[in-house]
Amino acid sequence: MKQFLKFTLATIVGIIITSFLGMIIFFGIIGSIAASSSKTVKTSPNSVYELELSGQLVERSKDDPFSGIFASSLGQSAIKSIGLDDVLSNIKKAKDDKNILGIYLNGGSLSGGFASFKEIRNALEDFKTSGKFIVAYADTYSQKNYYLSSVADKIYLNPLGMVELQGLAANLTFFKNTLDKLGVEMQVVKVGTYKSAVEPYIQTSMSEANKEQVTTFITSIWNNMVNDISDSRNISKEELNQIADKMMTFQPTELNIEKKLVDSLTYADGMKDVLMKLTNVKDKKDVKLLSHGKMNKVSTSEKLKKDRVAVIYGVGGIDMGERDGITSKDLVETINKVKDEKSVKAVVFRINSGGGSGYGSEQIWHALTELKKEKPLIVSMGDYAASGGYYIACLADSILAQPNTLTGSIGVFGTIPNIAGLNKKIGLTHDGVKTNKLSDAISFNRPFSPEERNLMQGYVDRFYEFFIKRCADGRSMHADSIKAIAEGRVWTGEDAKRLGLVDELGGLSDAIKIAANKANLEDYSIKSYPEKEDFMTTLLKDFGGETEARIMKSTIGNENYQLLKQIEQAKKMNGIYALMPMSFSF
Q1: Residue 402's beta-bridge partner residues?
Q2: Quick check: do 47-166+247-296 and 308-430+438-540 share a fold?
Q3: Spatial distance between the Cα atoms of 381 and 392, rounded to a whole number of angstroms
């Protein structure tokens, strides 16, 4: 017995010591990662900023110390994210830094929104005014990445590579047949002929109105892309459309040279020779490439100024239960904080949202109204600022969008599922008592009665009229003028400017300049809100609620994960929503 207790005690002590040492090693690794992430990088002569075009482009970057751990454990590749804010900042740093001679766009599989790509492309156009070079190389260029890379002075392609150029198509996934098999009927009340966010749950194909609006905005986006490529590559728009009709993806690689889509065919290691000549160095080893990560750590010479222009980010669905979406309560707190900061003289509200909760949108609108009483408020639209996203934009002093931003979608809907069919399939029955006529109204277990549907429709109609008033007041337009372009219809930024929903076409930097001008600022700093999470906060989240999302994304892929997230959001919908068409695949 003594021997048993001795071995048991030794085992317990060993486990404690091992756990203690493991914790020391773990936090030592964490400390070294945190320390390395905070080190400043200094540029040296003849440097080139290498922007790797792969992964997922997001509005703002964040510290992600263990992005690859879960993916690696599952035998999957990590989904790398790149912040648009960092890309734009790094391009400006590269332009201003005398040691950096050019930019190398490496790869062609970065995914993201059309307006975000336009923003980067505009920044690269501005970079070229410095006289510095831009070159691009990829084994395969996706269509968006070719559009972005077409701004380069020279475009290089793998001798067996492909350039995707075939025009745009938009596809929508429909759930009605699946819901029918389950015995679930999605009961919908809405306002707006074009308000198509509910179509996947009640139809098996797109309505004619939805086809009309989608055709209009994808044609506008495509024409904008063709115009930019035409200007950069000196190929007529007519010829580019003829090339696209050939579906260049599966054409012989040499045809890309013949059609002037690319300048030369080479392998990846051949780019060292190209860069060596452009930087005037004698040896390939002397080509100094600064990765995107290193460029993030290159400090700028700008000093902190007393006066500030605040950039408040509103990204994602509004109160849709997304981990990275907009929580109206948190965003209102941020807006109020900025309103009270005396050093902030003007505000840019950067919106990248397809909308969401009507209640949450109104809360944000109210907070912005109070802020606007004290400071100039400019809205900068990203890929989306539609439905609820437009609701929270319409009151600004000035609204800017990219030509290919999706906005508008001024309409409202409400959904209540009827699961009576499902109950019957699985043998569930319901019974109860009530004190008043409508005590059991809007039940999930039976269809709407005519009276219930009328009550619900009246409620949605009133909110729609309220939405129209908000837009009319914000844009100083008559309500009838807003109604004529509302009906839930989605517009591109280009069309929205023509219709009066947007004031100017431009990006975030343009919005910041306008905000500073309205506040009569000549010397100012820019501060972003909410502040980015530090390393440890991100780390704790990684071991918290975000772990499940990481595993799912790595296992089933980002596209399928987004589809599952859409279904999850539908389960959580409660109340009225101002939401644009969901999950279009371009």
Answers
A1: none
A2: yes
A3: 11
